[in-house]
Structures are given as C-alpha cells and as structure tokens.
Amino acid sequence: MAKMNFKPADVLIDDVWGKAGTPERDAMEARLKEEIQAYYVGEAIKQARLKQHLTQEELGERVGVKRSQICKLENGKSSITLSTMSRVFKALGIETATLDLGMAGKVTLW
C-alpha cells in the first residue's frame, strides 16, 4: 500500500487560493464572504416565507417576480439589492429593517 501524505488545511488553502494577503487570496476570501452573506439573507427569506406557509410562487407574485427568482434568492445564488430586499421583506409583512454598522451606529433601511 502506498504511503499517503497529508497536508494541513492551512497549507492546502494556501496552495489552492494563494498565500494570505495576496490579491488572489483576498479576492477569493471576499467572494466567499459575499456568498455566505447571500446564504444568510436567503435563509432569512425562506424561513419567513415558510412561517407564513407561502410557496415560492406565491411570494414571487406578491413581490412581482417569478418563482425562479425567489428560488435563486433563497439559495444565495443571486445577489440581492436593498430595493429588492425591501420589496421581498415587505411582501412578507416585515415593515421595518435596521442595518447595524457597529460603532458607526444603526441605519433604518425601510
């Protein structure tokens, strides 16, 4: 049996994404962060929709988009603008939202 060589995860990440602090690594980490944020927003939309026993098609009708767009938003496969986010959450009966900017304070979105 051949001997297997294992690499620590941080070495493997450096091999695939480049060393920390390089433009390639910074770009990959930024994309990953955006994808994670899209996932969390999508999950929030999905959970609010399910609580109301709505289908994706029904929510899409309320918002004025097709079911496929709601599916993409819920799965984090589509970037969401603040205006779209506002329309979706208002359609779900969530009338206000606040963005917490940490030390800079909070901003009312809608």
In a nutshell, what does this entry contain?
The chain has 110 residues and is mostly helical. 58% of the residues lie in helices and 5% in strands. It has five helices and two strands, in the order H-H-H-H-H-E-E.
Offer a few descriptive terms.
110 residues; 5 helices; 2 strands; elongated
Q: What secondary-structure arrangement, pairings included, does this model have?
A:
Layout: H1 9-17, H2 23-51, H3 56-63, H4 67-74, H5 82-91, E1 98-100, E2 106-108
Antiparallel strand pairs: 1-2
Helix pairs in contact: 3-4
User: Which whole number gives the mean pLDDT?
Assistant: 93
What would you call the structural class?
mainly alpha
Q: What is the N-to-C order of secondary-structure elements (H for helix, E for strand)? A: HHHHHEE
Beta content comes to: 5-15%
Q: What are the segments in which pLDDT stays under 50 over at least 5 consecutive residues?
A: none
Main β sheet profile: 2 strands, antiparallel
The quaternary structure here is single chain
The percent range for helix content is: 55-70%
| Rg, Cα atoms, Å | 19 Å
Separate helix tally: 5
- Terminal-residue CA separation: 63 Å
Describe the protein in words.
The structure is a single chain. Strand 1 and strand 2 form a beta hairpin. The protein has helices spanning 9-17, 23-51, 56-63, 67-74, 82-91; strands spanning 98-100, 106-108. Helix 3 packs across helix 4. The mean pLDDT is 93. The chain is built from 5 helices and 2 strands. By secondary structure, it is mainly alpha-helical.
